[in-house]
Write a structure and sequence with these properties.
It contains 5 helices and 2 strands, in the order αααββαα. It has a two-stranded parallel ribbon. Helix 2 packs across helix 4 and helix 2 packs across helix 5. The radius of gyration is 17 Å and the shape is flat. The two termini are about 20 Å apart.
Length: about 130
């Protein structure tokens, strides 16, 4: 007897061009604002934040989500990395930038959360990317 689910093809990654643009914009903000916010406390913390916010997502990715996977991680780990970027962008923007800019970053992060839902559902599915 065979398992019917083993014969089904893996679900395809959803089209997320708009989500990717919003996610990347938020990541850029996190990469700039977080070390800026931490530099007043410690240059070491600022440097570590860059390594964490840029290095981890570069090294760790879910197969099928990116073309080049250096270290494969499950989908939930990719979701957590995106949430880390969003939290860093929002928190740091409120610390270092004027209120109007922090509000804009918060709205951008909220829009990113909404547009990422399909991708995240795919990422936490039993076998994203095959």
């Amino acid at each position: 007897m065979t398992d019917a689910t083993a014969l089904e093809p893996a679900p395809e990654r959803p089209e997320d061009r708009a989500a990717s643009v919003l996610r990347f914009a938020t990541e850029l903000i996190a990469w700039v604002a977080t070390p800026w916010a931490l530099a007043g406390r410690s240059w070491l913390l600022a440097a570590v934040s860059v390594v964490v916010l840029i290095g981890l997502p570069t090294l760790l990715s879910t197969p099928g989500d990116k073309n080049n996977v250096i270290i494969a991680v499950p989908g939930w780990a990719t979701v957590l990395l995106v949430l880390l970027q969003l939290a860093a962008a929002v928190t740091a923007s409120w610390v270092v930038w004027p209120v109007w800019a922090a509000v804009c970053v918060s709205v951008l992060a909220a829009a990113t959360l909404v547009t990422e839902r399909r991708r995240w559902r795919w990422l936490v599915s039993p076998c994203p990317g095959g």
